[in-house]
Design goal:
By secondary structure, the chain is α+β, with helices and mostly antiparallel strands. It folds into two domains: 112 residues, 2-Layer Sandwich (Uridine Diphospho-n-acetylenolpyruvylglucosamine Reductase, domain 3); 202 residues, Alpha-Beta Plaits, CATH 3.30.70.2520. The chain is built from 13 helices and 21 strands. Strands 7, 12, 13, 14, 15, 16, 17, 18, 19, 20 and 21 form an eleven-stranded mixed beta sheet that branches. Strands 4-5-10-8-9 form a five-stranded antiparallel beta sheet.
Length: 419
């Protein structure tokens, strides 16, 4: 099918002339074999060229089924095109859930895992850590299956940046379903955050802090508490100097909160409450840009203080920032490889020239903490600097070469940042 495709935000137009939408694994294999350059397109939620190709794109939007739940191993196997928002209710009806979810349930599981997209929580590693097995089609049409407990290269393949092949199946670890109580506080004094950072972010299953860096306080604090029926708590009117929000809020206070998940102490299943936004609603018009950087957890307060110094420069272009914690993992190309992290996220106005001038300032402020950028978002960090931050990069390069020796899945993004 001929198509000009744009990403979700509208800031990037894909170069590929053809978009393929196969309905069977056999069709995937046929498309891959006859393609010279090919990349997999998910829900187009990346903000850079990580998913682009100079020739062909392939979407697995028709390969989006739940294939099986294994009640003995406590896993679920799904096709590569399924979205979190469609898997969640299915799992809940069977008594299961995933350990963690991203802000948006609208994204594909394969795309999120391939870019180390994360969610939040002191004890919650990124979404890709739920993957226990992965299946993908390589450039010669072969179907390769790798399992966590059987293949050394598995730890390099899960966050594969789209470089190994077309992901057709994933097996994910499950846990019994649980409920989340969500509530929001406003105007957390920055001094309180600096003095009590660990206590604040570890106070619940997941905690998100939203700030515009313009004041001596954090605008909003979203607290998602894991509960049982016997542990539903009355909400305290204040928390570390912040006050309980009197109404449901959007992270951007001037935006309607209709698309957000339930707050005000409401209780709901994890798949509905861990995301910030509801699957049934469009979370944004898409007219925005995003960047994110990860610093080791021990540098969280120093990194926040460094960014606060940029407040005046950020004012014109920034819509909101989010601060979250993510647990360490063992995935080679994850920004949280072998280190607990704090994610520092920026949602920008749709003004790339202005953002492009700001990102080097942010990267310079965070350089002392060896900040790593999110693979699917906007950054200006030189490739040499980026590559120096990944000790497993040589192994990952070799992994890509071994499965894709003719560079079918290698694109400008991988050439620039990995090779």
């Amino acid at each position: 099918m001929e198509a000009i495709q744009r990403n979700w935000a509208g800031n990037y137009t894909f170069s590929a002339a053809k978009l393929h939408t196969p309905e069977t694994i056999e069709q995937v294999q046929e498309i891959v074999v006859r393609s010279r350059k090919l990349k997999t397109l998910g829900t187009r939620h990346s903000f850079n060229d990580i998913a682009d190709s100079v020739e062909d794109l392939i979407s697995l939007e028709h390969l989006n089924r739940v294939l099986a739940i294994d009640p003995i191993r406590h896993t679920v196997t799904v096709e590569g095109g399924i979205k979190y928002g469609h898997l969640g209710p299915y799992l809940h009806s069977a008594g299961y859930t995933l350990h963690n979810l991203a802000s948006l349930p609208h994204i594909t599981i394969a795309g999120a895992c391939s870019t180390a997209t994360h969610g939040s929580g002191d004890g919650n590693a990124n979404l890709a850590t739920a993957v226990s097995a992965i299946e993908f089609v390589t450039a010669n049409g072969e179907i390769v299956s790798l399992a966590r407990d059987q293949h050394r290269e598995f730890m390099g393949a899960v966050v594969g940046l789209g470089g190994l092949g077309v992901i057709t199946k994933l097996t994910l670890d499950l846990q019994p379903t649980f409920d989340i109580q969500q509530y929001v506080y406003e105007n957390l004094p920055l001094a309180q955050l600096e003095q009590h950072f660990d206590a604040i972010v570890s106070s619940a299953y997941s905690v998100s802090l939203f700030t515009d860096w313009q004041n001596d306080y954090v605008n909003q604090m979203w607290i998602k508490r894991r509960i049982s029926e016997s542990s539903i708590l009355d909400l305290e009117p204040t928390f570390f100097g912040a006050t309980l929000a009197p109404a449901k809020l959007h992270p951007i206070s001037t935006t309607s909160a209709e698309s957000c998940t339930a707050q005000m102490g409401s209780v709901g299943p994890a798949h509905e409450q861990l995301p910030h936004f509801r699957m049934e609603d469009t979370p944004s018009v898409g007219a925005e840009l995003q960047s994110e950087y990860f610093v080791p957890r021990q540098h969280a307060v120093a990194a926040i203080q460094a960014l606060a110094q940029l407040g005046p420069q950020l004012a014109e272009c920034l819509m909101i920032s989010e601060i979250r914690t993510i647990a360490a993992d063992s995935l080679w190309m994850s920004p949280c490889y072998q280190q607990d992290c704090v994610g520092l996220h920026f949602t920008w106005k749709l003004d790339w020239p202005a953002v492009q001038k700001l990102l080097p300032l942010i990267e310079a402020q965070l350089a002392p903490f060896n900040a790593r950028p999110h693979w699917g978002k906007l950054f200006t960090m030189p490739a040499a600097r980026l590559q120096s931050l990944y000790t497993k990069l040589p192994d990952f390069q070799q992994l890509l070469l071994s499965y894709d020796p003719h560079s079918t899945f290698r694109n400008a993004f991988l050439e620039r940042n990995v090779f």
